[in-house]
Structures are given as C-alpha cells and as structure tokens.
Amino acid sequence: MAKLTRETKDGIYSLMLTPYKEGLSIDYDTYEEYTEWQVSQGVEHLFAVCGSSEMRELSLEERLKLAELTVKHKGETTIVATANLEPSVEDNLEEIKKMEATGVDGLVLTTKGLGNDDDKLVEYITKLAESATIPVFLYEFPGFNPHKMSGKAYGELTKNGLIWGIKDTTSTMEGIQAKIDNKHESTIIQANMPFLFDSYKAGARGVMATPTSCGGAFFQRFHEAFLSGDMALAEQRYNEIILLDNAIDSGFMASAKELIRLQGIKNFAWRTRCGHNLSKARIRSIKAFYDWCVANGLMK
Q: Which CATH number is 11-228's, of 2.60.120.10, 3.30.450.40, 3.40.50.1000, 3.20.20.70?
C-alpha cells in the first residue's frame, strides 16, 4: 500500500463525487465502483469528502462511510478527507478522531470562515492540527466565507511542518504566489485551471480541482510531463485540461457525473443534492466532448 509521506505528498488529488439513487439516498455500490475507476486513472491520491462530494449536504455518518469505502478500494493511492465540518471546535476535535478511525492517510481542514482574521485562523487550525495523528492539509473551501487565507497566515502554519499543503482557491496568481512564497516544506495544490500551468512554473506541485473527479488521467499526464521537463508536452496536456474544464463547467457536479457514466460507470446518475442539473442540450454537448476525447486517445 502507498503511504503519504513528505516525499509523496505532491501530485494529483482526484476529487470524489457522491452518486445518488432516486430520492437522493447515497448509492454506495456505485460509489465503490467509482472509487476503483478513479484508482485506475493512475493518480497518486484521492480526496474523499470534499466540496465536489457535496460534503455540506452529507451527514457526519455519510461522510465517514464514504471515507471508509474510499479506503477499502484505495489500491496504491493515498486518501485524504475533510474533517472539520461540524459546528464547534469541540465537535471538530471529535470529528478528527472519527475520520482518522476510517483509515484515511491524511486530513483536510477548511479555513472555516476565518479568512479575514489571521490570528484567529492560525489559532483555530493549530489547535485542530495538533490533535491529529496523521498529515494535515488545508482547504480554502468557499462554503465557509470568508475562506481565503493570507500568505502570512499560511507561513505561520507551515514554518514548523504542522501543515503539509493547501488547496488554494484564490484563483489569482497573486494569491497563489503568496502561498508559494510561504510554503516552506509544504505543497501548494491548485484548484484553478486557467492558472494551472503558470502556478506549476511558479512552484506549485499538485492539483485538487473539480475536473479531476471525471478526468484524473488528464492531470496525471500533465504532472508527469511537467516533471519530465518537456514543457511543450506539458503545455499540450494543460490545453487538454482546459478543454475538459470548459466541457463540465456549467453545473459541474452533474456534468462530471454524466461524463463518468459515459466512461463506463453506467449506474452513475447525474442527480445532486445541491441543485446542479443537466438539460438535454448539455447532455448532448458532453457526449460530443466525450466522443472527441475517445477519437483522440484521451478517454476510453
């Protein structure tokens, strides 16, 4: 089994979607099949219980079960999962214990709406991270606003190795660069696709982004091309990612699910709890993109 270490923490963290049955109960059987499919994409890591999982629409029990199932089918990947969605700090400390018990390799902590107060944010994250017994990453989750963390606050949390990395969602090179300048030994993990190539050239070395939920292989190809030093190939792979990102952009949770269904997970319906849905026109455009990918050897 793979292990999450300081040396292996870089790379692609594919986001996990949540499939639903009619009535919006979780389709756990399809989720298990989907996890195995995600592993087959060749990525190093999976991010269970994330924004794309609709984590705020899930109960604690549902989140823990999804994490357990991801671990069950992890293969040679490592698994991280969000562990501070409950209301209070005391609840979060208990949530961390329960999430660790699922067998995940790392925890993800959201900035929990404290982005405008560096001191409170650092104090909050430090208390939670010090209670953990496995690696901890951060997530500027837009579901809790204000969510963006300053480079200064990030530097305080990384200078002694407490935090291993961050999913940056500033969507600006200035915001990304501020994290890179204060990263110490941590990893800056990208969520923004337009600046993906630029951020890698600036020093980022990972991805946690919505298109990984249905196209992890695209990102693995980019990551490997970039690390090989072949910048022409890396740019080609980046351009392919931009096409994927644009293909699923509208109602991305539902769009990504439809693209997964086309790639072989036949029972993966595009139902969501968050209200994303697909028109017949969107379904047709996704099919056209899929056919183009198959014709060009990018999907099966």
A: 3.20.20.70
